[in-house]
């Protein structure tokens, strides 16, 4: 009799429990330790920096190339060869003016700009702005710059859809100039970061450059921001593992003394867990 009563109480308890939680699957606490499905989702890491996305004018008649972002394996550093007070909108206007009527430029050729007070100056927090979207090929390394690339980049680049070009008004077709003598077109597999300012020596061609014995370097906060931006981009695009600079591709004095700071930029990225060669 006593046994029957206990069973009845247990059955009632189960009924109530099932009614209260008709759609629940309860997992005993001890099991949740071993059940990967019950573990809380790992939150995406906080972005290292804020990347502003200003609205920039575009030339709707210009040609451009949309790419599979997986082909991008290299960051190329530039300076803008303008005053350090220039804005990303100023650079966008400069680049729009650089095109000709027959071959207009779409917009700014760089993908990111960092406003970058010079070392020794008053240093507000550097700001990163998006220029050309990452999924569009940039105009920065030189139209005729071709360099060796790894086997995986060459394989991805060879795929149909890797680089589709055309005018905004017409259809996009696969680029016919992805390779030359086994080398890859640099504008296609790279992303451009430009430090706003003039870090090259003064010459007739570069009257805004630094005078002899007064070299101009980026501030420590600019280098910090450049390293964080590089690491943030690598987090978003894991194939992005190389850092170069403009004069690696062309005979140019760009990016001036920024080139001497590439090791420090890589060291900042390493502090945040990113490795660049
Ligand atoms: Zn450059």
Provide the low-confidence segments as ranges.
5-32
Strand ordering within the main sheet: 1-5-4-11-3-12
CATH top level of the domain at 76-144 and 189-271 is Alpha Beta
- Bound ligands, named by name, code or SMILES: zinc ion
Give the CATH H-level superfamily of the domain at 76-144 and 189-271: Peptidoglycan recognition protein-like
Oligomer classification: single chain
Write a brief structural summary.
With 277 residues, the protein is α/β, with parallel strands linked by helices. A hairpin with a 5-residue loop joins strand 7 and strand 8.
List its salient traits.
277 residues, alpha/beta, Lysozyme-like, six-stranded mixed beta sheet, 25% helix, globular, binds zinc ion
Outline the structure in words.
It is a single chain. With 277 residues, the chain is α/β, with parallel strands linked by helices. It has a domain at 76-144 and 189-271: Peptidoglycan recognition protein-like (Lysozyme-like, 3-Layer(aba) Sandwich), CATH 3.40.80.10. 25% of the residues lie in helices and 16% in strands. The strands form 3 sheets. It has a 6-stranded mixed β-sheet, with helices on one face. It is globular, with a radius of gyration of 27 Å. The model is unreliable at 5-32 (pLDDT under 50). The protein binds zinc ion (ZN). Zinc ion binds at residues 78, 140, 246, 254-255. The site of zinc ion has 5 residues, from loops.
What is the strand and helix layout of this fold?
Elements (H helix, E strand, L loop, with lengths): L1 H19 L8 H4 L18 E2 L10 E5 L6 E6 L8 H11 L13 E4 L12 E3 L15 E2 L3 H8 L4 E5 L5 E2 L4 E2 L2 E3 L4 E7 L23 H17 L5 E4 L16 H10 L6
Parallel strand pairs: 1-5, 3-11, 3-12, 4-11
Antiparallel strand pairs: 2-7, 4-5, 6-10, 7-8, 9-10
Helix pairs in contact: 5-6
The structure holds zinc ion (ZN).
Zinc ion binds next to loops.
């Amino acid at each position: 009799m006593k046994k029957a009563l206990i069973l009845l109480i247990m059955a009632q308890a189960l009924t109530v429990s099932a009614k209260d939680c008709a759609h629940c699957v309860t997992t005993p606490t001890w099991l949740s330790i071993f059940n990967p499905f019950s573990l809380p989702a790992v939150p995406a890491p906080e972005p290292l920096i804020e990347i502003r996305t200003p609205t920039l004018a575009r030339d709707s008649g210009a040609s451009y190339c949309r790419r599979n972002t997986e082909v991008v394996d290299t960051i190329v550093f530039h300076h803008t060869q303008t005053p350090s007070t220039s804005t990303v909108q100023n650079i966008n206007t400069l680049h729009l003016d650089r095109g000709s009527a027959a071959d207009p430029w779409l917009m700014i050729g760089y993908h990111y700009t960092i406003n970058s007070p010079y070392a020794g100056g008053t240093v507000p927090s550097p700001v990163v702005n998006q220029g050309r979207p990452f999924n569009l090929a940039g105009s920065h390394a030189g139209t005729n710059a071709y360099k060796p690339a790894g086997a995986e980049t060459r394989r991805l680049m060879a795929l149909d859809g890797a680089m589709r070009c055309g005018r905004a008004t017409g259809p996009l077709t696969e680029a016919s100039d992805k390779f030359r003598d086994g080398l890859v077109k640099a504008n296609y597999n790279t992303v451009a970061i430009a430090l706003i300012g003039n870090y090259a020596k003064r010459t007739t061609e570069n009257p805004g450059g630094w005078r002899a014995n007064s070299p101009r370097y980026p501030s420590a906060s600019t280098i910090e921001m450049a390293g964080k931006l590089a690491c943030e981009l690598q987090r978003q695009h894991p194939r992005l593992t190389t850092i170069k600079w403009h004069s690696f591709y062309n005979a140019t004095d760009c990016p001036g003394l920024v080139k001497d700071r590439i090791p420090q930029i890589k060291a900042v990225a390493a502090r945040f867990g990113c490795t660049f060669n």
